[in-house]
Amino acid sequence: MKIQDIMTKDPSCVTPDATVREAAQVMKREDVGVVPVVAANADKRLVGIVTDRDIAIRCVADGKDGSCRVRDVMSTDDLATCSFGDDVDHVMDAMRNEKVRRIPIVDERGSLVGIVSQADVLRKTDNMHRAGKTVEEISEPGGRHAH
Q1: Is 147 among the domain residues?
Q2: Would residue 143 count as lying in a domain?
Q3: Assuming Cys at both sites, which of 71, 88, 115, 127 could form a disulfide with 11, CB separation 3.0 to 4.6 Å?
Q4: Spatial separation of the C-alpha atoms in residues 114 and 101, rounded to whole Å
């Protein structure tokens, strides 16, 4: 099974110049905790990810309000991504290795085309044992983004 078969296509996203309030409104509307950040509205090249935790830790906890910019709180270093033509096993490996619950899916130009969540893996994959093991390992402490 390919990633394109389980991914959410054309996820909502924001630009680095958006406010964290705008990012939070996308999270509320879409009922998600992560929003991909693209270079511009017309240029869907993935440049980062902003999470609800990024907003809480890097904005609210520092006494800033919702007008601070996504570029000031987003994660940009070594973003884990997969390609839509990859096997689902590849996205499960990436989630497990990175200890993340969502992976942006990009095309050959690095443009955002989708996103895969652990829920997508659980609901849509044909290897339930491996999917369950992946989710279990994602939840273990560690990973590059652990603070």
Answers
A1: no
A2: no
A3: 115
A4: 14
- pTM for this model (two decimals): 0.85
Distance, in Å, from the CA atom of 51 to the CA atom of 70, rounded to the nearest integer, reads 10
Residues 36, 49 contacting (CB under 8 angstroms): yes
Q: Which domain holds residue 20?
A: 3-138
Domain assignment present for 111: yes
Q: Based on the structure, what is the number of domains in the chain? A: 1
The model's pLDDT over 94-110, given as tens digits with 9 standing for 90+, comes to: 988 888 889 999 999 99
Domain membership of residue 96 (yes or no) is yes
Q: What interhelical angle do 88-98 and 128-138 show, nearest 10?
A: 20
